[in-house]
User: Fold these one by one.
Assistant:
Number 1:
Amino acid sequence: MKDLATFTRTVKKNIEDELVKANIKVNVNKLITISLIATFVLSIIILMFFRDNLKIAANFTSALIYYYLISLIISIIIIFFFNYSNITLKKLKRKKEVEDVLADYLQLVTTNLNAGMPIDQSMWYAVRERFGILAEEVEIIARKVESGLDLEQALIEFSDKYDSELLKRCMILLIEGLKSGGELANLVDKIAWNIKETQILDKEINAEITTYVIFITVAAIVIAPFLYALSHRIIIIMSEVLSNIKIDEISGISGSLPLKFSSGSSISASDFKIFIFINLGVSSVLAAMIISTIRKGSIKSGLKLIPIFLIVSIVLFLLASIILTAVFKNVVL
């Protein structure tokens, strides 16, 4: 029981830290309660899709329990993915907002330091409205320092609120400069220029890999849905053709035919369609992850691409199916 309580506290603490980094002002217990309610409601909705299977089930109770467990598992995965994506994307957004203006802010701090201001005043007077969220954080640091908190501790708390290695490294270097008592102006100026050089290098890399990104995107959400739609239509046509062939009438010459008829089970068009949707989902997830890894070096930023890729690929598959149905409608079976 103690281990379970310790594990629960650890999980809650980790969730609280993630909510702080995402700037989501929601109590952990409230978030868990909302997620449980949403999971239950979603599981009932998903269960409705299995109503036809329940009607033909020999044992209704067993079938109900079986399909509800499936619905519950699917609901848990969806709610977990939604919460994880929501928190992760908000963390990435806040991180980007800070990193984009950090170099400009540090250059203003350098200017103030060269003018003879101490480090704390240099930071306060470098705040500009255009710095957005960073300006708000510096004001929070100023209030903490005025209330008696050490500047170094305030900077550490500031960096811990963001999932940014760049920001953490900058704050660590600044704190080490404060401790050593060296020339801070040169140090802060070098930090600012290193950030700018890194950002310029990232832009150049993104420009170089655009071709690969386009190729993966087109293959995942354009070519794959069309090929799946074509395969689905071929299966439908072949099923109708074979259903119209009377094997008994040609049994005497079946040995000379290049086709072999079997009474075994085969893939139906409906089963293949389910297979298509599953594969389109997997392809969309993998494509988004690969593109995100190539462009950003992390799969987290690709979470926002997954629903876009999934919706576009399914829509294109349905459109391709409609077009191919119209093209082959005059085929005589």
Number 2:
Amino acid sequence: MKLSEVPIGKNARIICDAEFEDMNYCTSKVTEPFLSFMEKEKFIPQINPNAVCMICKADLIDKLPSHVKGIIVSDEPKFLFHQIYNYYVAKGEKKNMETTIGEGCTISHQVSIASKNVRIGRNVVIEPFVVIHENVAIGDNSIIHSNVVIGGRSFSFARANSGIMEGLSDQGCAVIGNSVEIYPFTQIAKGIWQDDVTFIGDHTKIDAHCYIAHGVKVGESTLIASNAAIGGNTTIGDRTWIGLNASIANRITVGNDSRVNMGAVVTKNVADGSSVSGNFAIEHKKFIGFVKNIMNS
């Protein structure tokens, strides 16, 4: 598809025409030529080389890398990107499959399960008032406690200068592994893009009142304590501990066998085997030393 074929409205203009095959965030790992948007210069060094078309503000044109061949200028790049994406989603034909439920499941009659595009494995327990949306898979022997929402809408909006909001139509899915247990009032959002998966690994346990955003990947045998919030497209490793009320920013990597302690606000990657504390989170021993120094002074 060419940029010249895209419905951009009256408040944008095409500077250079080019072809693209997909749409995604500029830092994504898409392998096909794709259209993205750019509002802040700080993200330019992180642009995927396959981002061949870009919607941006006029002052960023000369700063874009040479692999960007197609350019649309707009005062509202993200908002226009959302509008274009939703336009093509609405035009597309969705493939539907009947929902399937495996043998030996115990599912309350007070559960809401989408009639299409849900696959539930064997021996799964689902308690009352759980909501399971389309494009969800749940593995064998998992337990979903009351009032959990799986596959809910992602929280991804663009605000126009007029104040109007435009969200993205979620086309991804949520996959819950085998022997996972999810406690009450936790929400797990589905991915946005068609190839975007929110994934919870085998044997992981998620406590009550947690939020797992779109595109998050949680490894195996990880523990996530109550009220933890994990931002979109973050990766949590295997055998990791996420403490009470911890907050992890989007697009962060928390390594294997690591520990995010109670109340930590994580804005930078956490290495394998590390322990971090504080707001903003730093290595736990440094944090304790910092607190001791304050108390002694």
